[in-house]
UniProtKB/TrEMBL annotation:
Fe cation binds at residues 261, 315, 387, 620. Keywords: Iron, Metal-binding. Its cofactor is Fe(2+). This is Carotenoid oxygenase. Binds 1 Fe(2+) ion per subunit.
């Protein structure tokens, strides 16, 4: 557990108490004989990172193996990186400020020139980041429970134990309510995804608009409106009250948010994303799907729809040649707890892990609506979808098939509550060692092997979901055949098969015995129907059929990304590399592992690039084929 906690330490020495002047004096005298003792105690190795901006710039010189010549371009990754302010840690890791990193893989040079990868990092300097750094305290509410305190003379000051110490217990209810009641300006941390497209690099957070970054330096340029109208900062993604004069509308209304999980269409090269805003009067949600061209981020087509009975935006989406599908998990919002300041937005969510799930299916905005009409699927068996690897329309049946990581039916009542505290703590997650088969339901067959635990809440599976557009029914939902007992997350495919029947998916793998654990490797899963199902594997039995590479003892694997080889055959899924960031708790250092997909994963990486410091356990990212960042593939 101690090693896993270290994977969630704040980046560099950004928990230091030094002043900017001391840092500047230190960096200017690094090569002098004298040393500042205070800085030495802060670990000189980590001071390659500016503790105030998260900036680091250097060439990677520690390399195991050989860097492939046909891996050329720029890798961007995003995730929580600065876990608090002035010694006070956030209440939940997903409330941390975003940290974007950049790896530039240059063109191969002459035989006498050593090819080196350049590394750059920087915090996303959102409005909240800047304001809180200046005030040296939390000023805005976080999505997952971080919040300002009430009057300190009345309720006391925070203990400020350090950004790498356990967050302090919640202040008293009266303190939380006094500071946060009706303050609905939730902090945009820009910590979830980063994509490169249309000459822009954008850092996303799913409950607000993205921030634009300089593609090379990663300096924050400001809010990007992704082709839509400008909105004032601090507004909730809630539409105005119909019929009410504008001067009487609450100031907090009128904002909008963009999903953190847009998709790339491999055929058209379009970026497909969507914005959303809640409708305050009827509990519905307005969504606007937009397709963008890589030439200047130009809007190609846009279409708005209303999701009836949906008060909360889904996390991810499915893109096929003709359809966009949004799966709506069974969540509900306790508005009183949120508006009163008693709880944060995510804390106010109630989860019903045994309720049926719905899916809304829409024609892509570039399609003729008279040919492809929207429809709703109301009979998806209980599950909880998280991240979709890909989806496609079956040529034989016309059905929509989608693969995703998710949780089986469970009795959890809170959303991501097990991620709270310092980091996801598996000792606090109840573990049940019994598996059960669910009987087939009317109108379709389910083979759903489950166990009452998962990664972070229940055992995380890769699931297969099939929907028949003609009957508007879910005709199949099962653990993806061949991946039984594989606990995994963040599944991805080769970007050229994002909307096709892929042969392989790759995932961050926790274990292959159906247990709940930290991510310890990478798995290759066969998803084209040729893998043999193993429904009778018992709890604790290994799935020996899966190709897995374990990154090593006391190491933790980050999300994978599949990158096509330069000048490779896009129709061959093996013509690519899998890239994954790995944290080594023994060395307290992170590395980027590069796997050649022509080989089995279990044969190990062909190259490992060692950073000079440790990186926090991140989230999503993208790879641009060149520095013009005109387009990219992402996870």
């Amino acid at each position: 557990m101690r090693d896993w906690r270290k994977a969630w330490y704040t980046y560099g020495q950004c928990d230091t108490s030094i002043t900017p002047e001391e840092y500047n004096d230190y960096t200017s005298s690094l090569h002098a004989s004298s040393r500042n003792d205070k800085m030495e105690e802060g670990n000189e190795k980590q001071m390659v990172v500016n503790p105030f901006t998260g900036e680091a710039n250097y060439e990677i010189t520690e390399v195991d193996g050989t860097l492939p010549d046909d891996l050329v371009g720029v890798l961007y990754r995003n995730g929580p990186g600065k876990f608090g302010i002035n010694g006070e840690r956030v209440a939940h890791i997903l409330d941390a400020d975003g940290l974007v990193v950049r790896f530039e893989f240059p063109e191969p040079g002459s035989s006498i020139t050593e090819r080196r990868v350049k590394f750059t990092s920087r915090f996303v300097e959102t409005e909240g980041f800047i304001e809180e750094n200046a005030a040296k305290q939390f000023l805005k509410r976080g999505t997952f429970g971080t919040a300002p305190r009430g009057l300190q003379s009345m309720f006391g000051e925070p203990k400020r134990m350090g950004l790498n110490a356990d967050p302090e217990e919640k202040p008293p209810l009266l303190s939380r309510m006094a500071a946060n009641a009706f303050h609905v300006d939730i902090k945009n941390t820009a910590n979830t995804q980063v994509i490169a497209f249309g000459g822009k690099v954008l850092a996303f957070w799913e409950a607000g608009l993205p921030y634009a970054l300089d593609p090379v330096t990663l300096k924050t340029l400001g809010t990007d409106y992704v082709g839509g109208p400008k909105v004032s900062p601090g507004k909730l993604p809630v539409n105005y009250v119909p019929g009410l004069p504008k001067e009487l509308q609450p100031d907090m209304l009128g904002g909008r948010a963009h999903t953190a999980h847009p998709k790339m269409c491999p055929r058209t090269g379009h970026l497909v994303g969507w914005t959303w805003a809640q409708n305050p009067m009827d509990g519905s949600m307005e969504v606007t799907f937009t397709e963008y061209d890589s030439d200047g981020f130009r809007v190609v087509a846009s279409e708005s729809h209303v999701l009836e009975g949906v008060a909360l935006a889904p996390h991810d989406m499915v893109l096929t040649e003709n359809y966009i599908m949004l799966t709506i998990n069974a969540l509900s919002m306790d508005q009183l707890s949120f508006l009163s300041g008693a709880k944060g937005p995510a804390e106010s969510l109630g989860m019903d892990g045994r309720a049926l799930v719905r899916a809304f299916v829409f024609p892509r905005p570039t399609k003729d609506r008279s040919t492809f009409a929207p429809f709703v699927v109301n009979d998806i068996p209980a599950c909880f979808s998280i991240h979709f690897s890909h989806g496609y329309e079956d040529e034989k049946t016309g059905n929509i098939v989608a693969y995703f990581s998710g949780w089986p039916p469970n009795d959890s009542k809170t959303f991501l509550g097990a991620w709270g505290g310092f980091c996801p703590d598996y000792h606090q997650i109840p573990v049940t060692n019994y598996w059960r088969m669910v009987s087939p339901l009317p109108s379709f067959i389910i083979l759903f092997v489950e166990r009452e635990i998962c990664k972070f809440i229940n055992v995380m599976h890769v699931l297969l979901q099939e929907i028949d557009p003609s009957t508007k029914r879910c005709v199949d939902l099962r653990v993806s055949p061949g991946s039984e007992n594989v606990c995994c997350e963040h599944p991805v495919v080769h970007p050229n098969v994002q909307t096709k029947n892929a042969a392989f998916a790759y995932a961050q793998c926790c274990n292959v015995v159906g247990d709940s654990s930290a991510p310890l490797g990478y798995a290759k899963l066969r998803v084209d129907g040729s893998a043999r199902a193993q429904p009778f594997l018992k709890a604790g039995e290994r799935n020996e059929a899966v190709d897995v590479y374990w990154v090593g003892p006391r190491r933790f694997a980050g999300e994978p990304l599949v990158v096509p080889k330069r000048n490779g055959n896009l129709d061959r899924e093996q013509d690519g590399y899998l890239l994954g960031l790995v944290y080594d708790a023994v060395k307290d250092q992170s590395s980027l592992m590069i796997f050649d997909l022509e080989r089995e994963l279990k044969d190990g990486p062909v190259c490992t690039l060692w950073l000079k410091t440790a990186m926090p356990h991140g989230l999503h990212g993208c790879f641009a084929s060149d520095t013009s960042v005109k387009t990219s593939c992402f996870c």
